[in-house]
Amino acid sequence: MELEEKLSKLKPREFAGSETYNRFGFQIAVAIELILKLADNQEEFIALMDHLDDVVIINDTDSSNKTIFFYQVKSHNKNHITINTVLKEEWLDKMYYNIKALQSYENKAILMTNTGISFGKNEYVEDLELVSLEEYLNKIQNTDLQDKIIKQIAKSNNVSEGEVLLNKMYIQKTVLVLDDYDNQLKGKLHEFAVNLYPNLTAISIDTIFNSIKIELDKKQKNKFNPTIRTLEKLYAQKGFSSKGLKRIISLVNDVQFPKNEDLYKVYETLVPSDKMKNYVLFGKEIEEFKMDTIKTSSTTLELCFNILDVSPLMATIKNEEFIEKLGQYLLNDKNVNIKDYVINYNEYIISLYAFKRLNGGKR
Fold it and tell me: Which 3 state secondary structure label does DSSP give 54?
């Protein structure tokens, strides 16, 4: 049985802790960190959110040499997380369930923390790369601790101590810090995205970042459905791929939204004063407009622009009537098949259209 087929049929040991622990944000941040690292290495991947483990990565998805990485993500706002806490909370036991279930495939289970793990006085694992738990225990020559870990995992997973594959368990520290990980990730995203599209603006990077977060948040919150037994349904419900990342970046590059304050200046000239929204509400709705534009693959926005390009109203319309009349013109066009999008955002579609015409003579 192929790895993906087996993965789609494996039922989690337990529902992930999303309902118990308020850690959504940091898990998503770690997922983005992993995704960007893989993308930077030009690896094809699928990331699963909150299925079997906090984050699951399958890399080299286009080859036969796939490896599956199970990430258990833990954060602490003070000192190192201790190995005693790890054992008390049974994190390794829960991680081992996936290793056991998929032991015939190449897999690794990683405990990812923001602090590193303390194994005793002056004994810390703070590496940003994978550290083998078995190799580290051998290095510090703590056979008692190693035996304790093996016994606990064996008992919890109903296997003999000799069957415990400690060599598949790893520890890693994330580079992310709790109070600034959004900015850290935006910096990494910028480095990756501008290599693909050098003209991307800071506003566009923010839009890409927020789109990725929204998509991962949605995947994370989707509940596991025991009736799912196909890989396609599993990926659709819980997955985010390298192709999905590149698609979001490409779509934002195609649209290239200006700064909100610059767009608002154009908007002010196109709306009667009694119908004008204040800047705060404008900014909130513009962000919703950006996200929905990306969800429709920007094709609806492009269609609207094409219709406006040939509108006979363009030569005669007054500024204060611009949004109202062109909005109605869009809604009446038989080619606009997503009416809700136009109804919700016609003033922003037209403001963006006008902005692009004013800046360079074309939209």
Answer: strand
Q: How many CB atoms lie within 10 A of CB 358?
A: 12
Q: Where are the alpha helices (DSSP H) in the chain?
A: 3-9, 24-40, 83-88, 91-101, 133-139, 143-157, 181-196, 202-221, 231-238, 242-255, 260-270, 279-295, 299-309, 322-332, 339-358
Candidates 205, 195, 231, 193; CA nearest to 1 is 231
> What are the average pLDDT values for consecutive 10-residue runs of the chain, which has 363 residues?
67 52 79 96 92 91 80 90 95 94 91 94 91 95 95 96 95 94 96 94 91 93 73 88 93 88 92 90 92 81 86 72 81 73 89 86 49
Q: Is 69 helix (H, G, I), strand (E, B) or coil?
A: strand
Q: Which residues neighbour 233 within 8 Å (Cβ) at sequence distance 6 or greater?
A: 8
CB 170 within 8 A of CB 133: yes
**Distance in angstroms (rounded) separating the CA atoms of residues 235 and 22:** 24
What angle (nearest 5°) sits at the alpha carbon of residue 22, between those of residues 179 and 128? 50
Phi and psi at residue 120, in whole multiples of 5°? Answer: 145, -175
- The answer to whether 29 and 181 are in contact (CB under 8 A) is yes
Treating both helix axes as pointing N-terminal to C-terminal, what angle do 339-358 and 322-332 enclose, rounded to 10 degrees?
A: 130
d(CA 266, CA 122): 61
**CB half-sphere exposure, 66, CA atoms < 13 A:** 20
